[in-house]
Amino acid sequence: MSKVGIVTDSVATIPEALIESLDIRWVPYYIHRGQEVLRDLVTVSREAFYQWLPTADELPKTASPGPGDYLEAYERLADEGVREIVSIHITSKGSGAYQAAVVAGEMLRSERPDVRLEVIDTLNVSMCQGWMVIEAARAALAGKSLAEIVALVRRMIPVTRMLQTADTLRYLFMGGRIGRAKHLVASLLNIKPLIGMEDGEIVALGVARSRSMAYQKIVEMVEAAVGTMGRVKIAYVHAAAREEAEKLKRLAEERLTCVESLIAELPPALGVHSGPGTVGVCYYPVQE
Questions:
Q1: What pTM does this model have?
Q2: For residue 236, what are the CA distances in angstroms to 28, 73, 95, 216?
Q3: Domain check: are 78 and 190 in the same one?
Q4: For residue 231, what are the domain limits?
Q5: What are the respective helix, strand and coil percentages of the chain, to the nearest 5?
Q6: Could you report the average pLDDT of every consecutive run of 10 residues in the chain (288 residues)?
Q7: What pairing do the DSSP bridges indicate for beta strands 279-285 and 161-165?
């Protein structure tokens, strides 16, 4: 076990193998489907959820873990002897997770004053949050201090980017998560929206006439940010669309130097807002 414990939640989208190998602790989101209360990736799987979602007349509601959920994760680490924790969360402008973790931190300090906790708002989502968690966990396993790990994550926040396309913005619109891209909804028929995040909010980045053109634009945007054959760590994220993610991967890796890449499927708590068929990238430039 590393000296510094790393905590996040299910929406970080990190593949299970990395969660296990890097000793990342995660807390599941809640999904309210009618009278059912599901725990993301615990009582509902990706496959079953994405098979059901297109049949839904009304979208489920998602809710972030509460302070008690995060406190339980922190206390479990403390009971294992960890005295320093970094807790890393989705943008506070789209979820209550960060604030819930802050409240949990206050509770922890009153109960366990010997444990230091830093809670970080990534102002991002999905594997952008995930990359920050992964690098924090690697740094913790390498023996880096709490201050060094926090500084690493904060350096990543302004340069880690999400770009995404989908068959429709219906799910984002129905779920109230459309952000500053709302004006696209009425104009979209058979064209593919491109969205990203700026300052913690979803923004419109344009449209394309087909999936292949959308993927081309995504790669061009990454290339413009990092340069031709620029060095990046990149995750190809999708919702029930692995083959499409692999198409995007092949296109991107012809034009970028991918120091590390992986394919990750969105958990139900995120996929409910983007819908099946969503494909995108979460990346950040690598300087060393």
A1: 0.92
A2: 22, 28, 23, 14
A3: no
A4: 161-285
A5: 40, 25, 30
A6: 91 98 98 96 97 89 97 98 98 96 98 97 98 98 97 98 81 54 49 90 89 96 91 97 97 95 98 91 91
A7: antiparallel
